Amino acid sequence: MPLTRAETKSKPRAAAPATVPVMLPLALPGAYDYLPPDGRRLEPGQFVVAPLGPVEYLAVVWTLGEGEAPRDIERKKLREIVEVIDDVPRLPRVNLAFADWVANYTLSSPGMVLRMMMSASRAFDPPAPRYGVRLVGSPPQRVTPARARVIEAASNGMIWVKASLAEAAGVSSGVIDGLIDAGTLIAEPLPDWHALPLDLARERATLTPEQKDAAGEVLANTSGGFAVTLLDGVTGSGKTEVYFEAIAQALAKGKQALVLMPEIALTAQFIARCEERFGARPAEWHSGVPAPQRGRVWRAVIENKAKLVVGARSALFLPFPDLGLIVVDEEHDAGYKQEERVAYQARDMAVVRGRLGGCPVVLSSATPSIESLVNASQGRYRHVQLATRYKADGLPALTAIDMRANPPERGKWLSPVLVEAIAETLARGEQALLFLNRRGYAPVTLCRKCGFKFECPNCSAWLVEHRFRRRLECHHCGTFIPIPDKCPHCEAENALVPCGPGVERIAEEVAERFPEARRVLLSSDLTPNIAELRHTLREIEEREVDIVIGTQLVAKSHHFPGLALVGVVDGDLGLAQADPRAAERTFQLLSQVTGRAGREAIKGRGLIQTYMPEHPVIAALVSGDRDTFLAREIEARREARMPPFGRLAALLVSASSREAAEGYAREVARNAPAAAKIEVLGPAEAPLSVIRGRHRFRLLVKAAREADLQAYLRLWLSAVPKAKGDIRLTVDVDPYSFL
Ligand code: ADP
Ligand code: ZN
User: Is the minimum distance from the CB of 592 to ligand 1 under 6 angstroms?
Assistant: First the structure.
């Protein structure tokens, strides 16, 4: 008797328990099949321990792809799941779909995306009891001012994390211990997730009419399911206040909200603002958060206890079961692009996560990316604008200093015009900021006698002098040597000269010219720890500093009320790069950094040193005509079929031998399938031809918007012979780096 369809389908199910697909956090092509333990029925998202070879991995029960049936594998080859983790909630379904989507788009393995989602190993440890302290009444015999502050801070009767109480009262932890000994505070176990509940009824800023209109539009667009809002407002216009309303709306519905920031350094001021607005600290997620706390935050997120999370791009992969809003602050920032391992653009993936989870997304910036502006103009995003600053009467006046007409003295880098402006600023008791996006003292060191230049032994790059650390350093591989006193080539003594400036050299010039001023130099290599950086930023905010000299670390988002003057030491620096976004990025960076000036009562101004004042980017900054500049950029992109009008993927081949890298790159190119609307350029030697001893060749794929770039790449890569030896091929969809 022929079997009916239904019978065919149901038969294996009626037999032994079906296999389950399990995703291991490894670079595998997909899920593997396992047998559930004791024939248990497992749901997708369930955390399990599964063996592979001799190793057992924490893994996740996955879903079958669309139209995929359970695989028919010989049962004796199947291995059994070792353990089912029952005390951790299941990874939300949306995360499974998101991992598959990101993997498919970036051509990486879903297991590697899952690994990012699970990057909190401590979350799976049995919860260790932690102790907090609570005020119990009996005052100590001796009440010092420090003790009084603690008692005052703890007087709300809540249980406090010791460190937070110490911070709130501005005392050392010893003072807290003393009060425990005195019996004034008692130690009590903390609940597993300890965060004060957010207070949505707090009094908040009264919005200006313009802000109120903007907030109305944002709220309308974020009240339902997936929709993207581009919040486009000049620096200091109150974008944060406006999107706080959208956060409050999501939280009021009991949902979770996520705010992404491009840089960890930015989170401190923001967290303080959240605390003021919502009466409690949001959870923080980035690489600087210590492992035990990461574990607790991750658990609190998956258990839907952490309602507001602020974090770096990786926070997008947290397991939110009930996400009601994603805000991407400074959405134009290239810091959202991850280059290592899974190469993803977090702003773009935030939109995907929003769509998959039916959750609204707000992209906020004073200088939105061309991608987002085009999406807005084509009606895909709701465009909400804020044109005026809240506290100041206008944006800083920007002027170009033509360095051909006003050159600095020999061996100096600041034009007399800028020096004069700094002096005036200081005389008024206001602050100045000098910006140069180049770390170190000098980018090149040269022997005056023989012309020898110090080059990195592993990279095609000059060694950069770092005078504070007394060494020459490679910015690509980290190799360094102590600054020598004679030329290694001709052995001439006292013949080595630094060429060109880095921030350290500008700081030196400032010290010579303004010895009385309180100065601070901010550069990522000099302020390696976040606590210290946050401390310095607060000092600037509180006007304990007169002149700030810094790299892009100071360019973004900070609010320094006393800052009147921003001097851009080299306005031309970013323009010469082999990057289709060079003009856009320079415009954004210089608008951002000059936008730090005059954010409150003080009138701000910006001076940009340049050898090409007529360049469209500089001209647009000076005239303040952003829209004309952007319109031209957009037109140029459209004509060149560059993103967002076309799509790019970069293929990078590297190997320790130049011949091997080049040979394989050519082989890759030869295998490129022919396809309409897709063009393959290269291979060409990369502008940075050697990094860490590896020679590099690039191929660039240019596709029309409507072409299926991923399918094309997959087809291509499947035809490419496997790389031999130490040759490596990496794929970067939507590349931001072309070096
Ligand atoms: P943006 O995010 O657009 O740069 P912010 O939201 O940081 O702007 O606002 C700039 C400054 O003005 C902040 O100090 C903020 O607290 C303040 N501010 C903005 N709007 C208001 C308001 N309606 N009431 C009180 N302060 C405001
Ligand atoms: Zn190097």
Answer: no
Instruction: Tell me phi and psi for residue 273, to 5 degrees.
Output: -65, -40
What is the Å distance from ligand 1's center to 241 Cα? 6
208 lines ligand 1 (CB under 6 A): yes
E strand segments, 517-658:
519-522, 547-550, 563-568, 605-610, 646-655
Helical segments of 380-433, H only: 416-427
Rounded to an integer, the average pLDDT of 558-569 is 90
CA distances from 9 to 62, 63, 76, 90, 156 (A): 21, 18, 22, 28, 63
CA angle 567, 372, 641 (to 5 degrees): 100
* 142 contacts: CB under 8 Å, gap ≥ 6: none
Pairing assessment for the beta strands 397-402 and 283-285 based on DSSP bridges: unpaired
Beta-bridge mates of residue 435: 550, 568
Give the ligand with the smallest distance to the CA of 474.
2
Q: Which residues contact 335 (CB under 8 A, 6 or more apart)?
A: 262, 263, 313
**pTM of the full predicted structure?**
0.87
Angle separating helix axes 162-169 and 173-181, nearest 10 degrees: 110
Residue 473 C-alpha to ligand 2 middle, in angstroms?
8
Count Cβ atoms below 10 Å from residue 465 Cβ, excluding itself.
25
CA 478 / ligand 2 centre spacing (Å)? 6
Q: What are the pLDDT digits (tens) for 608-639?
A: 999 999 999 999 999 988 889 999 999 999 99
Q: What is the pLDDT of residue 557?
A: 67
The residue to which tokens 């291991």 are assigned: 24
Letter for the amino acid at 633?
A: E
Query: How far apart are the CA of 59 and the centre of ligand 2, in A?
Result: 37
What residues pack around ion ligand 2 (CB closer than 5 A)? 456, 458-459, 474, 476-477, 479
Model pLDDT, residue 75: 65
233 bridge partner residues:
386
Atom of ligand 1 nearest to the CA of 208: 23
Angle between helix 626-640 and helix 616-623 axes, rounded to 10 deg:
150
As to burial, measured by CB atoms within 10 angstroms (0-12 exposed, 13-18 middle, 19+ buried), residue 409 is exposed
What is the rounded distance in angstroms from the CA atom of residue 130 to the CA atom of residue 190?
5
Distance (angstroms) between ligand 2 centre and the Cα of 476 equals 5
Contact assessment for residue 649 and residue 609, using Cβ atoms and an 8 Å cutoff = no
By most ligand atoms within 8 Å of CB, the mutation choice from 203, 231, 240 for ligand 1 is: 240
What is the distance between the alpha carbons of residues 273 and 614, in angstroms, rounded to a whole number? 40
Q: What is the dihedral of CA 594, 580, 367, 609, to 10 degrees?
A: 10
Burial per residue of 351-382, b for 16 or more beta-carbon CB atoms within 10 angstroms, e otherwise: bbbbbbbebbbbbbbbbbbbbbbbbbeeeebb
Q: Taking residues 486-514, what's their average pLDDT?
A: 94
Buried b (16+ CB within 10 A) or exposed e, 615-631: bbbbebbbeeebeebbe
Contact 704, 646 (CB under 8 A): yes
Q: What dihedral do alpha carbons 487, 488, 491, 495 form, nearest 10°?
A: 0
C-alpha span between 51 and 39 (Å, rounded): 17
In the structure encoding, which two tokens stand for residue 523, read together?
């550069």
Q: Cα–Cα distance between 305 and 78 in angstroms, integer? A: 38
